[in-house]
């Protein structure tokens, strides 16, 4: 495993993607930065973080051996790897908010940005992870928090990085061995607001209620609606309000 440690970079995901196009990159090559000047989040958002206080890294994973058809499995595997890491640190009330935010109670403590890369017709992926660790102020982000805010303790970023990598390898191995259902079941068991009455907003801005019952293997959210019909939504179609 190769870890590239950078002081500052625009985005570890962008850096790793450029590397992949320029040269051969081995599985589990990691790029970690103290600071990002253009950290990127899901759906074109930005990811801001105080210098040196949080964990920001990207990891390369070749997908050709297995999950090409169902890339959402890698998203579930990584979410669970982080979940397990934080659970071992005794972070309370952990859950995975679909598709892959990690929450403690209802506060976001980790975001994941997965970007697919196709080079020489081979599929690979860059998995970008931002964990809010020792930062204590989140201006204009009322739904964000950090491990330190939650427990009052200071954490070693490198230790958390190593543990996430270790668990990601273990969950990836499960997938490689064909245990897709084990990963999906564990992911669904830890889904935020699973089987609880929830309110959603559709792409038109209309509110509706239903119960999250799980995900499909393509990563769509399955919601049981009031009329007993189960509908599947992708990320652009639905926002979970509460
Ligand atoms: C999200 O929840 O919107 C995803 C946030 C992902 C942030 C991480 S930080 C390291 C990596 N580099 C980036 O530019 N983004 C990801």
From TrEMBL:
Domain (BPL/LPL catalytic): residue spans on this chain: 1-176
Key word Ligase present: yes
UniProt EC number: 6.3.4.15
Superkingdom per UniProt: Bacteria
UniProt-recorded Gene Ontology molecular function terms: biotin--[biotin carboxyl-carrier protein] ligase activity
Keywords, in A-Z order: Ligase
Keyword Cell inner membrane: no
Coiled coil: none
InterPro entries, per the entry: aa-tRNA-synth_II/BPL/LPL (IPR045864), Biotin_CoA_COase_ligase (IPR004408), BPL_LPL_catalytic (IPR004143)
First-tier enzyme category under EC: ligase
PANTHER family listed in its UniProt record: BIOTIN PROTEIN LIGASE, BIOTIN--PROTEIN LIGASE
Protein name: Biotin--[acetyl-CoA-carboxylase] ligase
Provenance organism: Gelatiniphilus marinus
Lineage of the species this protein comes from: Bacteria, Pseudomonadati, Bacteroidota, Flavobacteriia, Flavobacteriales
